[in-house]
Amino acid sequence: MTELLTDAGPAPASLPNAPALRMERLDGPAAGERLALWVDAYEDVYAHALDLSDHNDPPIGERLERHRGRPGFELVAAFDGERVAGFLYGYTLPEDSLWWEGLTPAPDPEFVREHPGRTVGLCELLVGVPWRRSSVAATLLESFLAHRPEERAAALVTDGNAVVLGRYAAYGFTPVGTMEPYPGWRPHTMIVRSLRPA
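^ N-acetyltransferase domain-containing protein, sequence as received from the core. Prediction below:
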């Protein structure tokens, strides 16, 4: 199902620099119908780094195909006309999730224990070059998280990417350790944000 978000159009007042965009929320089947759009947007953003295993092993199309069938999958996209300005997708981590496997330093077992509805894993958040520095990423993130029932959100950022880690810190995420998400990938920093009032 594709849903036109009620916050479509100009960004909320808290995000004054975002351009007027059409926002859409898609479930797994709807995202799959437009798979080529997301693959093209991803390959455009990462054209300079597609030779790295982080971006091609497995390819984004394969990852999306696998992830879109998972419970709680959702993709939020920002469109400028017919062009994809950016998108974010994620899904609810299952109780037997391998999401935390290999995290160092070794976390408290209770911290990484999953139960139904505990964590939404953010798999990709990207913004095309023409729409950067205009709060599109923040708009996508807040539009996605505003509708999530989970207790917390978790994401991975390539180690050493201080700019992106700084932005996520501004969005309320905290680093909790590092890991290699897939064999052969560069180390990544795991970040977590509570979605419930303290």
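Helices lie at 28-33, 35-45, 53-56, 60-67, 109-112, 136-145, 162-170.
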